[in-house]
Amino acid sequence: MFNLHSLPPLSLYVHIPWCVRKCPYCDFNSHQHNNDLPEHEYVAALLSDLEQELPLVWGRQVSSIFFGGGTPSLMSAQAMDDLLCGIRARLPLHPMAEITLEANPGTAEAARFRDYRNLGINRLSIGIQSFNDQALTKLGRIHNADDAKRAVEFAFNAGFDNLNLDLMFGLPEQTIDQAITDLQQAIALKPTHLSHYQLTLEPNTLFHHQPPTLPDDDDIWQMQDACHTLLAEHGYRHYEVSAFAQANRQCQHNRNYWEFGDYIGIGAGAHGKISDAQYQTITRRWKVKNPRDYLQHAGSEHALAGKQQLSPQEAAFDFMLNALRLNDGVPTALFSQHTGLPITLIEKPLKLAEDKGLIEWNIQRIAPTDLGKRFLNDLLTLFLHD
After folding, report:
1. How far is 340 from 311, CA to CA, in rounded Å?
2. How far, in whole angstroms, is CA 276 from its chain's centroid?
3. Binning pLDDT at 50, 70 and 90, where does residue 385 land?
4. pLDDT tens digit string along 39-87?
5. What is the pTM of this model?
6. CA distances (Å), origin 30, targets 50, 112, 146
7. Taking a C-beta distance cutoff of 8 angstroms, is the pair 142, 26 a contact?
8. What domains can you pick out in the chain, each with its CATH number?
9. Can you state the angle between helices 312-323 and 332-339, rounded to 10 degrees?
């Protein structure tokens, strides 16, 4: 049974499901839309959706907002203004809340970025993926290297001082030198945060059904090792599996996920997780994925595609699944604080993982070792089968 004495921090995720073109590697809930977006209708649906969630979080302050997609930067500044005003009217927002918006270089406009910044959006995440035009073509991206550099310039000129760039490695036919060159170009633009991750062939994607030729495992390992060294040399601290940040620039919204915080999810296909101290429950909720269905049903129970009330064992595993992605791990006390469960529930797999050299564990902190980081899936399996 849970024994939640307090509630974890609360974030808000807002999903914008449309993009100019679906990339062949993308397994997110994104839908190609070539006509004018139904912005007014979608903003109204999002706010109705939020109102449906409010009884679950009465009085709780939101510490971060993340607009993900799809391509949120397709939304006009007016639509984003209406949406943010509606959110602020319905939820107490922390005065220093981190508000992130994902952007595609192919949709970047200087005036729009300035407007976003004036609305209170204080962090941009730009999906560059590569600075090699041939690689970008193979990835199905709508931008080129010049567009990517121009988008970063627009962001800084608009007043954004907290900027993430997404960059992939292990691309089709990519060499080690090309992967390093990509990263060098990203670092030269001086972002405060870099998400540097390996291309994977996810189910239900075009690349999964028609696999491109990818580098072999040895080359992938050399790319990763060389790039991690380069990032460290330029002051980017590796704090999560694929996340690197300059001092005080870690993504607070994502940290809340990794530390098993709570979050409201609104929008087509959005997921949420809410803890309830009154009923001593932790529940995951997710919305219908198709934008047409979402627009039709938002604000009603029909927009809820499903929910799952976690068992203590499921909550314990979910906590470790996220926490062990963090290179420094988490304070040991956070397990009980954010799950309402005694640490003794996972004592057996903790000791087993420690004996195998996969974690370091004491009264202060639970953290993966270098070996545990390298064999993270094996480490997590110990908690799954407890």
Report:
1. 12
2. 24
3. low
4. 999 999 999 999 999 999 999 999 999 999 999 999 999 999 999 999 9
5. 0.96
6. 20, 22, 25
7. no
8. 10-255 (3.20.20.70), 330-386 (no CATH)
9. 140
